[in-house]
Amino acid sequence: MKISRQPTPVTIKIDQKQVENVKCFKYLGSLLTDDGRCTCEIKSRIAMAKAAFSKKKNLFTSKLDLNLRKKLVKCYIWSIALYGAETWTLRSVDQKHLESFEMWCWRRMEKISWTDYVRNEEVLIRVSEQRNILHEIRKRKANWIGHVLRRNCLLKEAIEGKIDGRIEVTRRRGRRRKKMLDDLGDRRGYCHLKEKALDRINWRNCFERDCGPVVLTDY
User: Does residue 58 lie in a domain region?
Assistant: First the structure.
């Protein structure tokens, strides 16, 4: 699979047999696509989480205590939906998919149909929740990135662009594509982010506290 703006296929032969060019494939449970984005992976994860919810629907919609059912949903359903979320680069469309999935969980848990015309705010009040799924992803990403930045490893060199090689850079119209570290929201640059990550306690406290509503951005 070639991840590039140019659609020219790559020819690789092993024992005189040409390796097939593909647009997507699964690796370690995650769906990789040739556009380098996470939309297909997020949709796939949401579909698997919804299927898991349907299998245990009687449990999640039972007369058990509300707090217990919420913990079950976050433990059993969200863990499926957010597998590998630490590496996602979220566009606004991806964030909307995830927030829609979050509301889908609470509506199904409370047996609220879309034909009941109940607003999302009312649903959140009924389950005593706020929109947390995007903040949970940001917190997981911060913990993982902080761990990487405190080590000397190949992944850190890849993030810093220190891998040897040469690429042809062509300027294109429009804003630049969003990068993985942009979700952490530090406008002072990578050097400050790296320096802040060295203090593990302060780094985690920075993302543990409530950060308010997540601002949707696109690229």
Answer: yes
Q: How far apart are CA 123 and CA 176, in angstroms?
A: 37
Residue 161 corresponds to which tokens in the numbers above?
A: 């662009």
What radius of gyration do the chain's Cα atoms show? 20
CA nearest neighbour of 152 among 115, 194, 209: 194
Are the beta carbons of 26 and 32 closer than 8 angstroms?
yes
| pLDDT tens-digit readout, 160-186 | 766 555 555 566 666 667 666 666 665
Query: Which of 195, 203, 200 shows the shortest CA–CA distance to 138?
Result: 203
Assigned domain for 112 exists: yes
Amino acid at 138: R
Q: Is 216 exposed, middle or buried (0-12, 13-18, 19+ CB in 10 A)?
A: middle
Left if phi > 0, otherwise alpha if psi is -120 to 50, otherwise beta: which for 74?
alpha
Within a domain: 97:
yes
Question: Which segments within the chain are labelled E, that is strand?
Answer: 13-14, 17-18, 24-27, 30-33
Give the total number of structural domains in the chain.
1
Q: Flag whether 56 is in a domain.
A: yes
Sign of the CA dihedral with 204 first, then 82, 80, and 3 last: negative
Residue 178 is classified by DSSP as: P
The Cα 154–Cα 195 span in angstroms is: 19
What are 45-77's pLDDT values in tens digits? 999 999 999 999 999 999 999 999 999 999 999
Provide the residue range defining the domain that includes 85: 40-132
